[in-house]
Amino acid sequence: MKIISCGCSFMSIDPNCYGTHFSEIIASKLNSNYACYAKFGSTNFAVRLQIEEAIKQKPDLILIGFTGESRLDISNGQYVIANGVRNIEYKVPRIPSHIPEFYNHADITTRSMPMSEMSADDVGFRYYLTEIHDIEMKRHHDYFLTSAALDKLIKLGIPFVFTRGGLNGLDWTEWNQYEVDYETACPWNFVEPAGSTEPGSTIYHTTYKRQELLSTMWLDKIKELYNFV
Amino acid sequence: MKLISCGCSFFTLDKRYPKTHFSELIAQRGNYELENYGKLGASNFTIALQVEHAIKQNPDILLIGFTSVDRIEIPVDQYRIPDGILNIKYNTNNVFPPYYDERLTTTVSNSFPNLEQTDAVKLYISDLYDPELKRQHDFFIAAGILRKLDKLNIPYVFTRGGLTGPDWSEWAHNEVDYETACPWHWTDGAPVYHTSIIKQQELAELWLSKIKELNL
Questions:
Q1: A73, A137, A144 member nearest B141 (Cβ)
Q2: pLDDT value at A199 more than 80
Q3: Which residue in chain A is spatially nearest to B72 when comparing CA positions?
Q4: In the prediction, which pLDDT does A228 show?
Q5: Which secondary structure element, helix H or strand E, spans residue B3, and what is its range?
């Protein structure tokens, strides 16, 4: 059995404490092969590319966490459609990042990152932010990208469980049966300790104890949906 | 029976040439009530918003044409998600869709050459825009809207239009022949839809054949 997780930092595994993220705990409990495609700072476009790559691997289950809309994909090379998620840089300065097996530095064309980490000295970005970016319109773009991914998985009959994560404020009822409870099982609601540089912090922003609780709730949803568990 | 068409200029009516666009000819031939949502310079995001609005109208058939990747949306006021297509300005059209109210609009959707060439637009194109990344983004949106129509069992016929390159084979059944029936290949006319009146009659025949083939 093969499980793949997709998302931003909240779905990422931490190289400093392998085995502690809820997706790893679930894979262990289900005695499954596991691959993490999640990336610190991902946009929803990058998460969508992760899902497309996951689909090609014919997984038995995909765990998905969408992210906030305040993120951008910035080219630093010419994007190549055929390369999909291999366009995306997974190495983040000062952040210990898990690198998925498909990563090849020669293919990287695009940085996918939170706007808060972009340089205010970048004139193009500053103009974009003040004159072209509209947060609600970006949210709508991201909603099209993410909800279409869920429809594709349903059409292909690929099992998945997801959380809207940082992409809230939209109507997810159409996919309600596949979503873990937002209040209790969305990791975005349990950031502790606050700040990624504090002692005890993890790349996935929550405590080990919380990850254990999340694994139980996500596993309950998996059991509710799929009889292979 | 209600026919709704969605797209960019190639799907836009021109009041100077009434009843000449292929969507109008199809409506006339099939005795459909036509609602045309085409907009000059529409981006693929805007076309997705048109289709979302069309879905709410319970159409009997949808005609869709996607567009090229060199188009973006520029806010002029705060975008409102629940308003969908009502956010988009149609002020360069000379025919307007039934839902259009200029007072509700928040957003310009147009091609790069037709946008006001502000420093922001110029810097966006030179520093942040990657046409292939945008093509992937637009394809995700366009493919998503077709899957939604499939899921809802809403009949439609479409052309990839200007959104060439990606793999459309999943929807080959619903697409008119790209070489002969995509209006982007026949830019030879003065109307806002870019093709001659004669070509529109030929396109109407080709699109009608597809509609009949699908038993719509």
A1: A144
A2: no
A3: A132
A4: 77
A5: strand B2-6
- Cα–Cα–Cα angle for A107, A112, A114, nearest 5°? 160
Q: Is the pLDDT of residue A195 over 60?
A: no
Q: Is the pLDDT reported for residue A193 higher than 80? A: no
**Do B130 and A79 make contact, defined as CB atoms within 8 angstroms?**
yes
As a whole number of angstroms, the distance between CA B101 and CA B84 comes to 13
A45, A133, A169 ranked by CB distance to B137: nearest: A45
d(CA A74, CA A128): 12
The 8-class DSSP code of residue B128 comes to I
pLDDT per residue as tens digits for the range A61-100: 999 999 999 999 998 889 999 999 999 999 988 888 899 9
For position A75, what pLDDT does the model report? 87
- Residue A45, both tokens: 């476009």
- What's at A160, amino acid-wise? F
pLDDT tens, position by position, B167-181: 999 999 999 999 999
- Across the interface, do A148 and B147 touch by the CB < 8 Å criterion? yes
Instruction: Read off the tokens for B45.
Output: 């995001």
Query: Touching check for A130 and chain B: CB below 8 Å?
Result: yes
Q: Which of B107, B120, B132 sits opposite A137 (nearest CB)?
A: B107
The per-residue pLDDT for B52 is 98
Cβ atoms of residues A167 and A7 within 8 Å: no
Q: Is A172 on the interface with B (CB under 8 A)?
A: no
pTM for this structure?
A: 0.96
Write B211-215 long-range contacts (CB < 8 A, 24+): B211/B26, B211/B30, B211/B61, B211/B157, B214/B155, B214/B157, B214/B173, B214/B174
- For A155-188, the pLDDT digits (tens) are 999 999 999 999 999 999 999 999 999 999 999 9
At CB < 8 Å, which residues of chain B contact A?
A: 45, 48, 72-75, 78-81, 87, 106-107, 118-121, 123-124, 126-130, 132-133, 135-137, 140-141, 143-145, 147-148, 150-151, 165-166
